[in-house]
Amino acid sequence: MPNVTAFKFRLVSYNILAQAYVKSAYFPHSPAPSLKWKARSQAILTVLKNLEADFLCLQEVDEYDTFYKKNVESLGYASIYIQRSGRKRDGCGIFYKQNNAELVIEEKIDYNDLVDTVEDGKTSSMDNSDKLLVGGNKKEPKAVSDLELKDSQGDRGDPNDPRVRLKRDCVGIMAAFRLKNPSCHHLIIANTHLYWDPEWADVKIAQAKYLLSRLAGFKKLVSNKFDCSPSIMVAGDFNSVPGDLVYQYLVSGTNSMGPETVDDLPIPLSSLYAYTKGEPEFTNCTPGFTGTLDYIFFSPSGDIKPVSYLELPGIESSDLSGGLPNYFHPSDHLPIGAEFEVL
């Protein structure tokens, strides 16, 4: 009987840094020519091409219609995309190799939908231990500067109002694919970018819960529609370091914003790097902050398994000197990824 080679696919997640956020005042450490769109755009394309991924989950894509759709698709990809609501122009995109995967269904996630769930200072997706940190006996978050507040919120009202807090214009996208291999295995990929402010953990937890709730419903839809048991992957910039509230919730259901509780996770997940070798030392590298914010989570099953992962440079690497972005790395984030085997 001939040996059958297992089907493998590669998935990469990468916050490519929206050009709208590239200002010399934000990145004074970066060589000025490396920040110019003409240079950065070509450098990003080179990185994406060299990654040779079957699936690219990209965040902070702000030139989708005018640049990425055409240029990345010229590399053999098709794509789906969601742009942030409000005045921000960037969004999340999933690019997939048409030769290896067929898109069968997709759904978009707008975390502003959480505003409609607010009732008496809490969201319906939270239990009593997850009340928004707005008054009461809970410690209020440290106030951000007026400039940060205006930049991140669009000056839209009182940040102590839970409806204002939840309206962050963050988005995500989910898609189900049929892999073009002998097994025709179905794979669900979600790509997202959660809110950035480290002091607003309540908002991040609400977004994480909403993400998994939507993902659970999407899995049920896909399972019923195609009579399958799909594998699940969740990629993106979660703006959360290993061990913090969002990370703990996603991998264990633990939520310790109040008395520590454990929720039933709609989708059990493991972090790819923690599962294989431990989380990277960092995925975001600037003089002001160096740490891990980007993850690929997957639901362990008997159908797929990670067999290799993308190695990240160490902090002493010469191409990271001074912080990112630079001539070697066109974003302040590094791409993460892995190769999976379909069993």
From TrEMBL:
Residues 12-333 form the Endonuclease/exonuclease/phosphatase domain. It comes from the Eukaryota. Residues 144-163 are annotated as: Disordered. InterPro entries: CCR4/nocturin_mRNA_transcr (IPR050410), Endo/exonu/phosph_ase_sf (IPR036691), Endo/exonuclease/phosphatase (IPR005135). This is Endonuclease/exonuclease/phosphatase domain-containing protein. It comes from Rehmannia glutinosa (Chinese foxglove).
